[in-house]
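Task 17 of the worksheet. Students: predict the tertiary structure of the chain below and write it out as C-alpha cells. Keep your answer in the requested format; marks are given for formatting as well as content.
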Amino acid sequence: RAYEKTMSFAETVKLLLVSFDSTLKSNLSVGLPLDLLFYEKDAFKVSLKKRIAQDDQYYRTISDGWSN
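Model answer:
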C-alpha cells in the first residue's frame, strides 16, 4: 500500500524490511533469517542476494526505529 513506482531501490528495500519486521513482531511462527533475492527488470538475472540475520545492523536500525 505504501509502495510507489517512483521510489528508489533503497527506499523500496527499506519499505520491504519494515513490512517484514511488522510480520516478525505480529506472527511468532515467522522468524529470522530472511533471505532476499532481487531480479533485474526484464531479465532473469539476480541483481542482489542477501540474508538478513539477527545481527544485521541495517535491519536492527530499521526495526528499532520503527518500533519507537
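Marker's comment: Helices lie at 9-26, 57-67. The first strand starts at residue 34 and ends at 39.
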